[in-house]
Amino acid sequence: MTVYKNPVPTVDIIIEIGDKIILIERKNPPYGWAIPGGFVDYGESLENAARREAMEETSVHAELYEQFYTYSKPERDPRHHTITTVYIARAVDGRPAANDDAKSLKLFTSDALPDNLAFDHRDILMDYFEYKKTGKRPKPC
Fold first, then answer.
1. Burial bucket for residue 141 (CB in 10 Å: 0-12, 13-18, 19+)
2. What are the tens digits of pLDDT across the range 69-101?
3. Domains of the chain: which residue ranges?
């Protein structure tokens, strides 16, 4: 019997509130600050997973307005190979509050990011801030 070992699909949601973005402090390993997000459930679309994860971790309704980029380096998550599709969203309802896998939550600007970002989220955020300034998306590696 052949056993297949496939990457796991995830989503990350850069949620904007004015000129700031929401980051969560992770409750579970790997620890650190992160873009809200998580695993896509079987039978769930990427967009629905993004909205669900945004609500579960930040307590806000996120209006997805753009699919930003997909990151797939096998080492991006130390636990296993994940592929994440990153969305950009606006918080449209609810008061930001840590919930579910989030230990805490804060709003950050591009010039004041925490040092201990989990996964490849520093790279993702640098790409996002560059895109907001220039309109240029990351190039495939």
1. exposed
2. 999 999 999 999 999 999 999 999 989 999 998
3. 8-134
